[in-house]
Amino acid sequence: MSNQSENNDLKRGLKVRHINMIAIGGAIGTGLFVATGGSLSEAGPGGALVAYAGIGVMVFFLMTSLGEMSTYMPVTGSFQTYATKFVDPALGFALGWNYWYNWAITVACELEAAAIVIKYWLPDTNSLIWSVLFLAILFLLNYFSVGAYGESEFWFAGIKVITIIVFLIVGILVILGILGGQSPGVENWVKGDAPFPGGFAAIISIFMIAGFSFQGTELIGVAAGEVKDPEKSIPRAIKTVFFRIILFYIGAIIVIGFLIPYNDPNLLQSGVENIAVSPFTLVFKRAGIAAAASIMNAVILTSVLSCGNSGMYASTRMLYSLAVEGKAPKIFRRVNKRGVPVPALIITAVIGMAAFLGSMVGEGTVYLWLVNGSGVAGFIAWLGIAISHYRFRKAFVAQGHSLNELKYKAKLFPLGPILAMTLCIIIVVGQFFVYDDFSFMGFMVAYVGAIGFLLLWFGYKLIKKTRVVKLEEADFSQGFAKEKE
């Protein structure tokens, strides 16, 4: 059965420029504008550069893996559907619900972050009012149509891209001594124990932060079911987006490394609660831009809203695909005349708001556990992509298909997915050691998300008695994987 007949409830309303910016917007946010400060402080400029470059290589292979599958089989369920078809329906079930949960909780996190950012300008206002307002905005942007979501994300991401380009230009001018007084030269890269003050252990710990920063690039796959002409637009997006993201991250780290010493105490204070010491703000101030903090606060607000916007979209579409495949209640596969799965959108918004309200009750213990639970969800999703692509290609060949049938082929198979799998496993396992709390509670904080994922996987497997899909029986039909009655 064709993909069009299976997926005709959703509208292909996303253009090439939308899908490009959705991927860029998903990967560029507070992880770049804020978290790079802590990364430089812990691992030094050299260590941060190695960590982000290493994760960048992994993300490249993941994007090409996802691109190969999404171009051949562009469905909204993305890696959840691919895992069901090529690995095990139980894995698809667990990946889908894990991903929905991750982004639903992300919406709650962004509501809290947006309220914090607003307090920079309006310190005496009620956070709840702003969070409700922002949730309403995100809901409406996703409610009207997929085109409205794509257009809003295009402009949200556009603001971030312009900011980074300006930052890189200004930073280079400061490094050369054209702005901000005397050039610092290479002093911050060579003095003391720079550029690797924390050694190998610090680089490993930054791997986790870098991984979180890059999460969101997989949105290309989730959006594939609503992209116009996916055979052309998805490969184009992957080729252009990845190198732009790498340029932005690596370029920003190099500029910050030149201009701010890794042991600058300001870097440890950087966060959405303290925009004034964001490494971006510090560089702009050094260049003589007086309103740097306010400018970066506005940019970070758009980043927060962009991430929340993407979270609302991704979790809604994943829940819709789960319902279509019989892995979620049927009500969530209903769409309105504009092709928007409204029931899935409503429950995602409700869960996001409920989680946010949980942060305001008592000490927010429940909320913290929810956030901890989503901590490794992105890495698990990436692991699922790598495993699914490995099996996809093996099954494709086993069933007599020629690789020439693929409109887009992933690079360096099978090295790419194997490398991605290995790094994802190392990062997930390494969480316990990064937190540096070897108590039982520390173990639970580090792995509660992974434990929840395994319970979903094996629970579904026991109840439905699923088995690993044989390569010769893998389903290459261009549509969703239907749950057998």
What are the salient characteristics of this protein?
single chain, 485 residues, mainly alpha, Amino acid/polyamine transporter I, 0% strand, globular, disordered N terminus
In short:
This protein is mainly α and 485 residues long.
Molecular structure report:
The chain has a single domain, classed as Amino acid/polyamine transporter I. Helix content is 70%, strand content 0%. The protein has helices at 3-6, 16-27, 30-33, 35-72, 78-86, 89-118, 127-144, 146-175, 187-190, 199-214, 219-222, 230-259, 265-268, 279-286, 292-324, 342-358, 365-373, 377-398, 415-435, 440-464. The model is unreliable at 1-8 (pLDDT under 50).
Shape: globular
CATH architecture: Up-down Bundle
Distance between the termini: 18 Å
Tell me what portion of residues adopts beta-strand conformation: under 5%
SSE layout and pairing:
Elements (H helix, E strand, L loop, with lengths): L2 H4 L9 H12 L2 H4 L1 H38 L5 H9 L2 H30 L8 H18 L1 H30 L11 H4 L8 H16 L4 H4 L7 H30 L5 H4 L10 H8 L5 H33 L17 H17 L6 H9 L3 H22 L16 H21 L4 H25 L21
Helix pairs in contact: 2-8, 2-12, 4-10, 4-12, 4-18, 4-19, 5-6, 5-18, 6-7, 6-15, 6-16, 6-18, 6-20, 7-8, 7-15, 7-16, 8-12, 8-14, 8-15, 10-19, 14-15, 15-16, 16-17, 18-19, 19-20
